[in-house]
Amino acid sequence: MRNILVPTDGSKPALRALELAISMAKQQIETCTVHVVNVQSPIISNNVSRFFSADVLTSYYDDEGKAILDTLIPTLSASGVQHQTHVAVGTIDDVIKRFITEHKCDHLIMGTRGLSPVPGLLLGSAATKIIHAVDIPVTLVK
Questions:
Q1: For the domain that residue 99 is a member of, what is the CATH number?
Q2: For the residues of 87-107, what is the DSSP string, one character each?
Q3: CA angle 124, 138, 132 (to 5 degrees)
Q4: How many Å apart are CA 8 and CA 17, to the nearest integer?
Q5: How far is CA 33 from the centre of its chain?
Q6: Residues of the domain holding 131
Q7: What is the pLDDT of residues 16-56, one digit of tens each?
Q8: Which of 13, 83, 105, 129 has its CB 3.0 to 4.6 Å from that of 3, i.e. a possible disulfide?
Q9: Is 30 helix (H, G, I), strand (E, B) or coil?
Q10: Predicted local distance difference test score (pLDDT) of residue 53
Q11: pTM for the complete prediction?
């Protein structure tokens, strides 16, 4: 394993997924990078672009994503593992699939439930979409 991807929304299951990824990265003989990504859902409305420029929206997405990622920096830094944090905008399954390809990720570790106010039946809807979209090993963390 060289690149582990951990999508995060700041939820407790996502934090536990990060802790597992760090533990697994430490067990690797070769250098392993933990990539932590926060995916921002795009604001879908034609009216938004009438009131806000693309730069303002990009800044908004970055600020929202970095606020979540900044809470994880102490954990990542203290771990001693090589890591990178990222903010991406789009639908969760498309972003994760593209990210896996671009960063050559060979393992995905994610929480089963996020912060969405709409509960899934057994598994969060984001996790379900991602499982069906990717072709690398996925570890789900409760």
A1: 3.40.50.620
A2: EEES-HHHHHHHHHHHTT--E
A3: 60
A4: 9
A5: 14
A6: 3-141
A7: 999 999 999 999 989 999 999 999 998 877 777 778 888 99
A8: 105
A9: coil
A10: 87
A11: 0.90
